[in-house]
Design a protein that fits this description.
Helix content is about 75%, strand content about 0%. The protein has helices spanning about 25-40, 40-70, 80-105, 105-135. It has four helices and no strands. By secondary structure, the chain is mainly α. The chain has one domain (about 25-130). The longest helix has about 30 residues, at about 40-70.
Length: about 140
């Protein structure tokens, strides 16, 4: 009986490519991707950039808070009530983001944007399921 182990140094080593980027860089890339996908005007690009920047800053802040708590040993698994509050706040934030985007985009662009978001969400869900299966 024999066993071998190798260090995996591929793209999934636990650190995403966006981890080293600033919130402004992430927002810029996101805006440019949406500009290509939705054919945004200059005015729309500025508004989407502002929305993306707010979201990227919020995500960075949350990520840093959790990382600091984990490193200091203060972090603990949330209770059922805390998980409900976190999920409720996340969904409220998503609703607000959708309303902001609906004001900026035309009806056709908004429908395309929703399809892109749904596809990305389903893709992420599939990847998480695969990750869980692998152990």
């Amino acid at each position: 009986m024999s066993a071998t182990a190798q260090k995996h140094e591929g793209p999934r080593t636990g650190k995403s490519a966006k981890a080293d980027m600033t919130a402004a860089q992430i927002a810029t890339l996101h805006t440019k991707k949406l500009t290509l996908a939705l054919d945004l005007s200059q005015g729309q690009q500025k508004q989407v950039m502002q929305i993306s920047l707010e979201e990227a800053e919020m995500r960075k802040t949350k990520h840093e808070e959790i990382r600091a708590k984990k490193e200091s040993g203060v972090w603990k698994k949330p209770t059922a009530e805390e998980r409900f509050e976190i999920e409720n706040a996340r969904l409220d934030y998503q609703i607000a983001q959708h309303q902001k985007m609906k004001k900026v985009l035309s009806d056709e662009q908004y429908q395309t944007w929703k399809k892109l978001k749904l596809r990305k969400a389903m893709n992420g869900k599939k990847k998480m399921q695969e990750k869980g299966r692998r152990g």
